[in-house]
Amino acid sequence: MTITLAREILQTRFGYESFRMHQEPAIASILAGKDCLLLMPTGGGKSVCYQIPAMIFDGLTLVVSPLIALMKDQVDALQSNGIAAAFLNSSQSSAEQVEVFRAVRSGEVKLLYVAPERLFQSGDRFIEFLRSISVSLFAIDEAHCISSWGHDFRPEYQRLARLKKDFQQVPLIALTATADALVRQDIVRHLAIPDAEIFVSSFNRPNIRYTVEPKRDSYGRLLDFISDRKDESGIIYCLSRASVERLADDLGAEGYAALPYHAGLDRSARDRNQTAFLNDDARIIIATIAFGMGIDKSNVRYVVHMDLPKNIESYYQETGRAGRDGLPSEALLFFSWGDVAKLKGFVEVDGNAEQSSVMLRKLDQMGEFGDLRSCRRRYLLNYFDEEMPDDCGHCDNCDAEFETFDGTVIAQKALSAAVRTGQRFGASYLIDLLRGSKSQKMRLEHLTLKTYGVGADISKDDWHVYFRDLIAQSLLKKTAGEYPTLLVTESGNQVLRGERSVQLYKVTHTDSSRSDRTETADYHKELFEELRQVRFRLAESRGVPPYVIFSDAALIEMATVLPQTDRDFTRISGVGAFKLKNYGPDFLAAIRAYCTTRGITPDPVALRPARRQKQPSNRTGPDTHSQTLTLFRSGLSVDEIAARRGLAVSTIESHLALFIADGRVQVEELVTPEKMALIKNALIDLKVENAIGPVKQHLGDDFSYGEIKAVLAHLELGE
Ligand code: ADP
Ligand code: ZN
Predict the structure, then answer these.
(1) Which CATH number, 1.10.10.60, 3.40.50.300, 3.40.120.10, 3.40.50.2300, labels domain 3-200?
(2) Which is the most buried residue in 73, 113, 135, 154, by most CB within 10 A?
(3) Are 571 and 609 in contact, with CB atoms under 8 Å apart?
(4) Smallest CA separation from ligand 1 atom 14, residue
(5) For 245-281, how does the pLDDT look when each residue is reduced to its tens digit (9 = 90+)?
(6) 16 lines ligand 1 (CB under 6 A)
(7) pLDDT above 90 for 85
(8) Could you tell me if the CB of 320 is within 6 A of ligand 1?
(9) pTM (predicted TM-score)
(10) What atom of ligand 1 comes closest to residue 298's alpha carbon?
(11) Which of 420, 476, 413 is nearest to 448 (CA)?
(12) 567-583 in b/e burial notation, b at 16+ Cβ within 10 A?
């Protein structure tokens, strides 16, 4: 079968062991001559879905892509795997273009990348040219650009409808990383592929850890954050050009190679800074959102948002530029409700009330995300209509210990502020009132209220957290509408009358991002640096960016398993026959020299293919639970597994608790009988069926969340 051939190409040419997500069915569908639409997150591996068929088909595969800046890299990357590819765009001279046409006509080229405007630039000439040769496949990259509902509409994309009309027999694959239901319909309609099979992969990016911190001394926090990551590449997003420039200066003064990027810089400065970043000459790029569309750098280890993005789509896309190589990466957002207020003016669309209200709603959801107490990944995936049954165990909230304290007095202040102003105001105004704001917005009659200024000792952000908590506890109720106000409920009145006390959450974040990073720490760091040098020299002599040669992930794998022979070397993920032949000798020589001078004998076990289990990209994938189980069954304790995997103990416990449901783990293995009895009693006393928080609060520190989860899972079995 041809799919076997496809898998063989994946292994020998691209050096990957197996297909991911929907790669295999998508390729099978194309090979069967059918059209398809493929949705896969950034870094998921969309390209091979047309590149492999391109190598199997006899004729040309035409790839339409709007990202001119990327074409050269993509073509370089293909050539570095020994695949004949070329591109056509406005950056080339006409002599260069003539040469490309010649090579295509003579059948020397299997994949041709072209910008949509180039396709129709000279009337029908390009289409005529395509007719005169044999075309086997059309691939439309960034297909969401065809829809005016998408976030990056490009009118010239709509002309692509012709392709299917003029070439009915040629299969077409549309690819995108962002498209909601509406945009999907648009793609299918405009490309005239009504019968296309649609493949939607999960949008989860398991290797990205999401963290939100309050926007307070964010510069100081940023310095802490990057000083731990001096050798790693990162993107820092700011809202305005001015703040980009300022931050670039400040970080420059601190000794960081950090370059600015925004639409106010001239073209050559932008290109220069972008290239320096791509080539790892500058570790940090500080940018407005103008930066990113054309960025295909696989080893971006972190993305920081100094300011709030306008909606979840943007946040997801921007953070998605981290970790395309599958290695653990960080997304850090500095959040304040002040930013939400500030952005309101930006997102409103003049003269279009309907769109404005959609945009404001989206901004509000971005605010909700910033203020979230529950799993951030689950929120993101839900936003994109994807269900996630369990918390991810790999975001700040999943790792946070939520502690409560007696917040009765704070609650009384907040509630009385609402009552005394006639329950006609929203949280922001009440907070200003409580903090004794001197703002013009304050009504005169409120300045003399007893509550005016009684909450000045608490910051705005904290007040916002408390208000949301009070709403969540149904002491306050938010009205619907554009300007929601806060009403005090009956339970709220009980609090005001002193008949009822209130527990409020305070959050202490455990900084597990550090421990997470130890997972990849057991490779030979100095060797990794040497391998980077080797890669750099090869890249320079071939005039391509370093990651085209090998990703950081591949180098780390080399520095972990220390391959000695060609055979060992091909087992590194990303090494195909072509790369083995062209780059293998240089890398192998460096590795052997390293081992010899240090008297290191590589561990033969590490060289067996089974080691792939340890690949970091799998670490938090769907398989993370099974990995925990395997280690547990091999006799390690929960603490040992946590240390080994660089995950929190509570995360490991939660993993194991999951296996109680299917009987692979017994509750007794995780909880002592004494504790189990106490947890059961607490569940009965508190009359809660499945709320872990209150039970934990009731039982105190001697009980972990994992133990409680385990008992719950056990009880759910009905035993
Ligand atoms: P996308 O276009 O979806 O953002 P790419 O096609 O650029 O993603 O692929 C991202 C990375 O994943 C590339 O380095 C690619 O070579 C690699 N990759 C693709 N398929 C596989 C696979 N089956 N196994 C391992 N790595 C893969
Ligand atoms: Zn989570």
Answers:
(1) 3.40.50.300
(2) 113
(3) yes
(4) 325
(5) 999 999 999 999 999 998 889 989 988 999 899 888 9
(6) yes
(7) yes
(8) no
(9) 0.56
(10) 14
(11) 420
(12) ebbbbbbbbbbbbbeeb
